[in-house]
Structure formats: structure tokens, C-alpha cells
Amino acid sequence: MAPRLSTARTAAAVxxxxxxxxxxxxxxxxxxIPGNIALKIDPGFLERTIARIPDGVVAVSGSNGKSTTxxxxxxxxxxxxxxxxxxxxxxxxPQGIASALLSEVSTGGxxxxxxxxxxxxxxxxxxxxxxxxxRTVLLLNIQIDQLNRYHEPDRVAAMLGRVAASSTxxxxxxxxxxxxxxxxxxxxxxxxxxxxxxxxxxxxxxPAGHGVASADRFEESAAAPGSRPATVEVIALDGPRATLxxxxxxxxxxxxxxxxxxxxxxxxxxxxxxxAATALSVLGDRFRPELVTEALxxxxxxxxxxxxxxxxxxxxxxxxxxxxxxxxxxxxxxESAPEQVxxxxxxxxxDPSWIYDIDFSALDHVDGITxxxxxxFAVRFGYLGIPVGEVELxxxxxxxxxxxxxxxxxxxxxxxxxYEQMMLIRKIxxxxxxxxxxxx
Amino acid sequence: xxAKALQILHLFPRLLELNGESGNVEILRLRSxxxxxxxxxxxxxxxxxxxxxxxxxxxxxxxxxxxxLIAHPxxxxxxxxxxxxxxxxxxxxxxxxxxxxxxQTVTLENGDVLEGAGVFPVTTRHGGTRVVGDFVVESPRLxxxxxxxxxxxxxxxxxxxxxxxxxxGRGNTETPGEEGFWEDNLLGTHMHGPILANNPGxxxxxxxxxxxxxxxxxxxxxxxxxxAIDERARQARGTIAATPLSE
Lengths: 440, 247
Ligand SMILES: [Zn+2]
Hints:
A: UDP-N-acetylmuramoyl-L-alanine:D-glutamate ligase, Protein-Tyrosine Phosphatase, Chain A
């Protein structure tokens, strides 16, 4: 394709995409549409724009914690003085990334950024790896939530293996994950690629309730989870703060820093360790541990996890039920059984069979259940002997009844929601939508 | 072992347990215990088959192909013991990969053929388009049976009786027709996950077969606790059957 034509096409893609983006925002609609249209007008738009970013692309993928970790890593890089391009939480498919680009590029398709830190959907990982050519890849975990979409953990592992294999300079892996602990030995090696690991000390990882909830693996593995030396290791947890021990190049003693987490929980600490290990891998000698602490201190709570909504002066804690692993970890991090609990799950969770693998002992009752999967949850709670107040498939009516309950003595109500219901309920309650808002 | 308890044998819970399938065993146990008949669950992950003869009911679940390949020699090793239990009228519930391995053969995508345990007179062929979505089957014995289908294989059950006719989803064959296998004491299906949660009638049927063989009775056949759950399950079936969805 002639360069001039390509430039004209990029401009058209950017302009049309932007117009659609504005229109979509006014309607309060989905974020991926503008990117979709831009990609149709100029299929090479994403690839070409990304290829011009001087320090290249860092891809963050895995089943769980992508948004949190991408957010952390972007903040750490910014604190080190880099201009960062990143995609908003959830916008991790090609269209979503193209949409994010649209808001930042010049009409000529230039992006004023030093580095791109991109959350990548594992299902599109292979395709995105070809498009994005990441220099560095950070893989967080392989958990069982993906069965509906990708059917088998082995398949997800194979997809993430291809993403890992595309990294040219750095590959950072979670050594506590059954599938990732030896992934580097199962992909073709590459001269110049540095492999490093992050993890937690056994005293934290082993008793962590349901641990790091990694999917079971049945084939032979070259290394047991936890067995690889970690450049960044979680060594202590204290509420929403974690201590990380970091092995800096050329230093005998490890450096310890304390960081703030979005909320309590080992999984957040591991996300922070992964972000720090990736920053270290990318920055090398330029990496400053104290800037990790500063960056994470200023980070706002990631949308939708442990988030507090205030409705009519009353606080409502949102627990996102993105997948079994995240639900389990969030249930485990509850300090006591919530006094008022509401649950909403719809077809965004097509097959909630896994609720029979979840330990719901953190709940002693549920006040209301709504969404099209409500009755399946009600059956589960029946067999668990967990009393259920009301099952009401009409979300608005169910929500109204729950909000009408008297203010709990503990100070806040709890809602356990899948992503789709979270978006819907925010809308009903009058909060702005995630789309177009982005993070950080 | 409590001689007055119903004995459930759960095969390969470590290898074959996809998406909450052990919920089936929990549901069988609770439905019996709440009616006053105690249950003991024995899990088997390999080794000696001593004690198999005590089993009143056998459950085997599903798993990814990688797990099925690892489970295959383990299943072959206990095939004679399983065929004896089946011939003796002990009810089996076999799901997905477990159902395939208890059949006669499993033909893999690369053409390799695994010899099954020969408990079910069925053969499986891997391949074709994978189907993932809600699954609605009309059972002549129970009415609507509702759950979730996730499979990349076809099952040939020959002239035998099935769980029922497919109303939504694919079932055994490329053209939707029938689902699974259900004859006498043997029930096999690709309705995966905790199939008994939405379909308590299936659970009770398996328990009745097991109890009849042993002459074990319930103290209270219809406790209020089960009545409430079964009403919820009926609502769950109704919700899924009203607007089934698939990928
Ligand atoms: Zn309450």
C-alpha cells in the first residue's frame, strides 16, 4: 500500500472513529464501537500507530487482575517520568485498544507516548501479540473462570504461551501459578529475552485460604509452583499494605518496600509484585523502588473491586464476581459475614456451575438475589443452608427492596455482582458509566 | 463403614472435576441425609479397588482432554471392577470425559482410539465444532431436564435409550436429536457441571435405584427443606428453558 494512501486512510479512520466516539459517549454507549469503525476504515491503524511508540509495548495478560495490574504498572512508569499510553479497564480487545488510541493520537496517527502498557484479553492474545509485537509480556495467572469461553485451561495456557513467546526483551511470570511457573521452558527461547518471576513467601501463599486459586494442571511440569527464584517477592501483608522484597541488579542485599494495595488480599499483593517486577525488567538501572511505593500510594481504587458507592448517604460495598477465583478471593477477604448482602447475576455469567466449587462460608445469609441466574444461586444456597431472603428477577424491584432495608450497624451494605449487573446497577443508581472514562 | 449408610463411590475427583461437578455428589448426599438415610462418600484417585463392592452408587465427572488422557489408563485398570458393579445394578452417573471413558471407545481428533471401560455400550468421537451453551432436554421419564452443554465430541449410543430428546442445544449427534444414555441403572451425559442441582428428579431416581437394591428406606421421604429447594430448581429450569442462550 502506498504511504500517502495509508496516511489518508489513517486520518479518515481517526476522524470517523473520533466522531463515532463522541456520538457513542453522548448516547452513553459502548466503548468498542469507535475503534471497530476505525479498524474497518484502516485495518493497519492499530499496528502502525503502536509500532511508532519509542519504548514499545508491554502486554499484561492472564485470567484475573489484568486491569488492576495494568493500572499499577502504568502508574509506576509515569512516576519514573515516562509518558504512558494505556487502555481503559476492560477495553482489552483489538477494538477497545483502537478506541483508546483514537482519543490520544493526532490525525496523522501519531501518539505522544514513550511506552504502551496494554491489558490484553487472553482469548485475543495471539492475534494481539502479532499486532502489538510486545517487547515485554507480563502473565499473571490461569484460572478456571475461562472455561465458558475457552473451554479448557490447557487451551488458555497454550494461548498465553504464544503471547509469552512473542516477547523479545522481557517475560515476567507468576511463579505461584501451576501453568506459568515453567512456561519459559515450554516456549522457544529467544536470545536477549530476560525471564523473571514474581511470587510470595510460602508462609503467605500456602495458608491463603484458597491460595492463588490457580487452575489444576495434569500434564508433567518442569517446576513446582513457588520453586522459581523471584525478583520481586511479597514477604508481608498487613491489611491493605504489602511489603515487597526486590532483587536489584548488581546488589547483594534485597531491597524492601511497602506498598498500598487497592484492598486487602494476597492477590492484590501479587499484582503489585508483578507490576514492580515488570517495571524493573523494562527500566533496568533506571528502576527506583521508592517510586513504586509513591506510585501505588496515589493510585485510586480500581473500578468495581472493593469499591464503595454512596447511595442516599448509605455506603454500599461492591464485590465483583468476575470469575470464581476473584469471587473466592473477595469472599475470603471479608472480615466478617456482611449484615446485608445482595447478589445479582445474569447471562454475562452463562454457566454458573462453578458456584459448587466456591466456599461461601463467608456469608451467613443473603437478603436478595436478582438477575437471570438468581434461581440457580438460590438452589446452591439452599443446599448450603444459607438462608435467602427474596428472589426477584426484576432487577429494579429487587434493588429497591434491598436499598429499603434499614441501615446496617456495620455501616455498609454489600453487593455481589457480575460485571454486566454492576454496569446496569450503576446506571440505575445514576453513576457514570465506565465507558469512555478509563482509569488513572 | 456404616452398614446402614448408602455408599457413594466418587471416581477420580482430582482428575475429573470440571465446573462444580462434585456438587452432584454433595447433592446426592444431602438429599438422602435430609430424608434420614445417612450417606458415606468414598473418593478414588487410583490404587487398590478394595471396597468397590460396597459402592451403592458411582459418580464420575468430566475434565479437559489432557485430564482424560491421564485418566484413561487409570480407568482401564479398574474396568473389570466397574463392569461388575454396573452388571450388579448399581446406579452410575457419568458426565463428559468420565462418560466417554466408561464407554467402549474414544476416538481422538488425531485418529488415535482409546479403549474404554465398557460399562456403557457407547462410542465417542472427538472433533467437530464445539458447542457451548444452555441445554434443554425433554426426558420421557422426568419432563424437562435443563443445564449447560460444553462439548467437542459426538456420542453414538446405537439403539439404546437416551436421557431425552434435545429441545435446545446439540446432544449426541451432529444434527440435534437425543442426549446421553439412560438405561436401567446407567446414566451418562454431556450436560456438565452440577446437573443434579437443576434436576433433582434425576438425583432422586439414582438414589431410588441404589436404595431399592439395598432395601434401604428414608425416614421422611419429603422433608420441607427439600421441598423449598426443589421449588427453586423448578424456577431455575423454567428461567433457562424460557430463554436459552449459547455462544
Ligand atoms: Zn441481612
